[in-house]
Amino acid sequence: MKQVIRVGTRGSILALKQTEEVVAALQNILPSAVIKVVTIQTRGDIRHDSTFPGIQGMFVKELEEALLQGSIDIAVHSLKDLPTTSPPGLTLAAILPRKDPRDCLVSQGGQKLLELPPGSSVGTGSPRRAVQILKKRPDLHVVPLRGNVTTRMARMWEGRVDALVLAYAGLLRLGLEGEVAEVFDPWNFVPAPSQGVIACETRCGEGWEKLLAPLHHPETAQAVSIERLFLSCIGGGCQKAIGAFAEVQNGWVRLVGMLEGRVGWREGPFAAGEAIVQDLAQELGGKR
């Protein structure tokens, strides 16, 4: 009998696009396997109005419950949605190559952030993006806006807002990069920790980790381990304005971190990554 692999995902267009990448990679290493995609609605998908307070793991819990109950074998996540620790019995088995870490601006008139007329409205549901927008343009109005990428784009074209700040990787995956007016430098407009990265979570001790090992990208994993450690040291949740971006090359790490508009930089040996992260988190007012 052919091996059947059940891959769980959220049902948004972007989540399904990300899952297609995972399925294609799995099919490449297991051409005879039957891979079934199982869509699961999360509480974050049910409530995406602007009054809904973002909570950590709101796009994750139902997928993890399906893993633990055995109704799926692999869960595909945007890594930035995942808490920094997995529930008992689950593990992150593969972190795929990062697509692009940066944020970008989409605007009705094609203007860049500094070109928007005074008083323009910019939509985002992210406190991290909001504080950085207002730091650069205090004359703009940030409008709370939730929903998937296509929903937010539609609201902009309906006139709800003049512009949006979104993850560039999502627009790339949806083939909407032509809509982008500006892509921000991640050292100047700090992304969310792990932005642009797909992760595969599974149950421990059943052989799935070995099966997923060929999908794992060590260089990306090293960089996001630094970013997620910063998030853990800060004690972050969805309601805090937290950003982090790291690059690791030849055993050397460069890191930028942001907390509520305060920004700091560090660099040093990757082997000393924990001390580097803790030092920066302390400088910016983290929990340690």
From TrEMBL:
It comes from the Bacteria. The modification S-(dipyrrolylmethanemethyl)cysteine is found at C238. It catalyses: 4 porphobilinogen + H2O = hydroxymethylbilane + 4 NH4(+). Its EC number is 2.5.1.61. Coiled coil: none annotated. Gene3D superfamilies: Periplasmic binding protein-like II, Porphobilinogen deaminase, C-terminal domain. Its cofactor is dipyrromethane. GO terms for cellular component: cytoplasm. GO terms for molecular function: hydroxymethylbilane synthase activity. GO terms for biological process: protoporphyrinogen IX biosynthetic process. Keywords: Porphyrin biosynthesis, Transferase. Residues 5-204 form the Porphobilinogen deaminase N-terminal domain. Pathway: Porphyrin-containing compound metabolism; protoporphyrin-IX biosynthesis; coproporphyrinogen-III from 5-aminolevulinate: step 2/4. It is an enzyme of class 2 (transferase). Monomer. Belongs to the HMBS family. The porphobilinogen subunits are added to the dipyrromethane group. Tetrapolymerization of the monopyrrole PBG into the hydroxymethylbilane pre-uroporphyrinogen in several discrete steps. This is Porphobilinogen deaminase. It comes from Candidatus Caldatribacterium saccharofermentans.
